[in-house]
Amino acid sequence: MVRYERPVPRATNAVAAFCGDLRDLRDSAGCSPTVDEISQEAKISRSTIYHSLRGVRLPSVPVLKAMVEAWNGDVGEWLKKRSKIFEQR
Question: How far apart are CA 72 and CA 10, in angstroms?
């Protein structure tokens, strides 16, 4: 069964915007590796990763690192962005 993602309302808050940017990173990597592959490799539940991509919550540092590394992003830059949002809360 194909899952369709709900759009992330980026304008609502910084966490939603951050998570929308994470989706963009994933999409720019061609969705490979998949969430399932990251989940298995990093020993992180699929639901935790999906919550991070949907804007439900700000991903923890280990979750963020696993996703950004898997999708060839700059981990240092993403951690800085996360820190700014975390400090604003």
Answer: 23
Largest CA distance in the chain: 39
30 in any annotated domain: yes
Q: Classify residue 8: in a domain, yes or no.
A: no
Q: Report the CATH number at residue 57.
A: 1.10.260.40
Task: Read off the pTM.
Answer: 0.85
Torsion of CA 19, 22, 28, 34, to 10 degrees: -100
Are the C-beta atoms of residues 52 and 64 closer than 8 Å to each other?
A: yes
pLDDT tens digits in sequence order for the chain, 89 residues long: 445 566 666 567 889 899 999 999 999 998 789 999 999 999 999 999 999 998 888 999 999 999 999 999 999 999 999 999 988 87
Q: In one letter, which amino acid is 72?
A: N
- Taking residue 73's Cβ as centre, other Cβ atoms within 10 Å add up to 20
Helix (H, G, I), strand (E, B) or coil at 23: helix
